[in-house]
């Protein structure tokens, strides 16, 4: 977590009401997200650092499907998975994507 991200996360926590239940009893219905942008000095690259937690119980959420680390061309996450490191660039850098794919979540069969 960068200094920018730590400060933004602390500020977000200060503005939240106290947790009103334990994580094991929570349905996780209300969320807060913290975003900080870090400029990787001397590289010309930027990273958006994102964290999400449940407001009701303060349980942090883990990002799935991303390898741990820091990359300038693809999303990655912190070693514990609690922070997404998303490479970003100014919109003035024109880029069009050639395609997109979507994956539907597995829905368990009800008996």
Features:
single chain, 111 residues, alpha+beta, 4 strands, 11% helix, 24% strand, globular
Characterization of the model:
- It is built from one helix and four strands.
- It has 111 residues and is α+β, with helices and mostly antiparallel strands.
- The chain has one domain (3-88).
- It is globular, with a radius of gyration of 17 Å.
- The model has no long low-confidence stretch (mean pLDDT 88).
Name the strands of the widest sheet in spatial order: 1-2-4-3
Helix content: 10-25%
Please give the domain count: 1
| Strand portion | 15-25%
Q: In terms of topology, how is this protein built?
A:
Layout lengths: L2 H12 L16 E10 L4 E10 L21 E2 L6 E5 L23
Antiparallel strand pairs: 1-2, 2-4, 3-4
Compact summary:
The protein is α+β, with helices and mostly antiparallel strands and 111 residues long. It has one helix and four strands; from the N terminus they run αββββ.
